[in-house]
Design brief:
The protein is 33% helix and 30% strand. With 159 residues, the chain is α+β, with helices and mostly antiparallel strands.
């Protein structure tokens, strides 16, 4: 085998190995994340400020006190979440109906800070819950009027 042919054979073997590894990884992830059908009621929220608490505690980064920031963060590509009203669980929203855009999604920007009830599929992987919304059953609008309790810019916020 000449040097050029030998190099081609090594390149092909490496490409096959990489393809097999990619397939194994894909099937491992596909089988690891099983979905569960759920109906969830909660607030559409800004995951970055809620989790990092950069703008204050979790009570201050929801509702009307945080609405504008939540819209800006979502428009800038921060993942949008749904904060479950019943247990405080955060679901990362990956799609909304037929709209599969999950970054700066206009349909999610329009309902930021709203309390909604949705039906969809929940996937859990490495402790993170991902939500694929099939449909929004109810949209109550912005009902968490936190500005009446803590003011427009809470003293705890640290912009």
């Amino acid at each position: 085998m000449t040097g050029e042919n030998n190099m081609h054979a090594v390149t092909c073997r490496n490409a096959v190995r990489a393809s097999v590894m990619a397939l194994l990884l894909f099937f491992n992830v596909a089988f690891a994340a099983q979905s569960e059908r759920k109906t969830i009621t909660g607030e559409v929220m800004d995951t970055w400020c809620y989790v990092s608490q950069i703008m204050g505690g979790s009570d201050f980064v929801v509702g009307t006190t945080h609405h504008v920031c939540a819209v800006w963060c979502a428009a800038g590509g921060i993942p949008v979440g749904l904060l479950d009203k019943s247990d405080g669980q955060i679901y990362m929203i990956m799609s909304n109906g037929d709209d599969t855009t999950n970054v700066a999604n206009q349909s999610l920007l329009d309902i930021q800070s709203h309390e909604i009830t949705v039906q969809g599929s929940v996937y859990e992987l490495d402790g993170i819950k991902y939500l694929m919304i099939d449909n929004v059953i109810d949209d109550k609008g912005v009902i968490n009027l936190t500005h009446q309790i803590v003011g427009i810019l809470p003293a705890e916020a640290s912009p």
